[in-house]
């Protein structure tokens, strides 16, 4: 890319690039994102990882076909990459799936790389990530019905809140009857089918 001083010598180039930039942004339409309920009899897990100052935490939330809360979790996992945090969040969710005996499961996260690696059996260099993926690849086929999908972050807000909440804890947290207050407004909006616009 040309430095500004050089671009000033070529006003035509500057104008063309500026026009192109404005055109791209002007025509970019917001995307409507909605959290979708699972089918009757299915359980949906939204999971997410969070990383702040080199430290990672994870979170997830289980809901039924009405969008009602079933279970939530949040915990710090120490120093880790964002990718490892995403895999750890899914792995922890699957551990809770087995504990609760859920079989018809919809798994949903906002990190597309997770979906690509698991669905395409992609290679990983990180040993910590490999450990999580190996567990996931063993558990998922053992469930009666299990689907994995990607959603934009705007459709994963409840899990995102729980993942970020994990930075405040020293030990793992699991909510079984009532979710933490921080996710109640989001859960209500999700259940009502609120459209959240993605502008990025």
TrEMBL record:
<dbReference type="InterPro" id="IPR053151">
    <property type="entry name" value="RNase_H-like"/>
</dbReference>
<feature type="domain" description="RNase H type-1">
    <location>
        <begin position="46"/>
        <end position="165"/>
    </location>
</feature>
<dbReference type="InterPro" id="IPR044730">
    <property type="entry name" value="RNase_H-like_dom_plant"/>
</dbReference>
<dbReference type="InterPro" id="IPR036397">
    <property type="entry name" value="RNaseH_sf"/>
</dbReference>
<dbReference type="InterPro" id="IPR012337">
    <property type="entry name" value="RNaseH-like_sf"/>
</dbReference>
<dbReference type="GO" id="GO:0004523">
    <property type="term" value="F:RNA-DNA hybrid ribonuclease activity"/>
</dbReference>
<protein>
    <recommendedName>
        <fullName>RNase H type-1 domain-containing protein</fullName>
    </recommendedName>
</protein>
<dbReference type="InterPro" id="IPR002156">
    <property type="entry name" value="RNaseH_domain"/>
</dbReference>
<dbReference type="GO" id="GO:0003676">
    <property type="term" value="F:nucleic acid binding"/>
</dbReference>
<dbReference type="Pfam" id="PF13456">
    <property type="entry name" value="RVT_3"/>
</dbReference>
């Amino acid at each position: 890319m040309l430095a500004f001083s050089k671009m000033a010598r070529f006003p035509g180039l500057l104008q063309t690039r500026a026009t192109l930039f404005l055109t791209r942004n002007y025509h970019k339409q917001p995307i409507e994102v909605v959290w979708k309920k699972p089918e009757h009899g299915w359980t949906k897990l939204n999971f997410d990882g969070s990383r702040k100052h080199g430290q990672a935490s994870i979170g997830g939330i289980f809901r039924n076909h009405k969008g009602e809360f079933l279970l939530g979790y949040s915990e710090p996992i120490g120093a880790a990459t964002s990718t490892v945090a995403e895999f750890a969040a899914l792995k922890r969710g699957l551990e809770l799936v087995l504990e609760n005996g859920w079989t018809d499961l919809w798994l949903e996260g906002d990190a597309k790389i997770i979906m690509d690696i698991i669905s395409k059996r992609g290679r990983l260099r990180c040993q910590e990530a490999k450990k999580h993926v190996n567990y996931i690849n063993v558990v998922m086929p053992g469930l009666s019905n299990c689907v994995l999908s990607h959603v934009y972050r705007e459709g994963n807000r409840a899990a995102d809140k729980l993942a970020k909440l994990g930075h405040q804890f020293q030990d793992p947290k699991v909510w079984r009857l009532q979710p933490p207050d921080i996710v109640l407004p989001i859960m209500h909006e999700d259940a009502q089918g609120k459209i959240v616009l993605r502008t990025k």
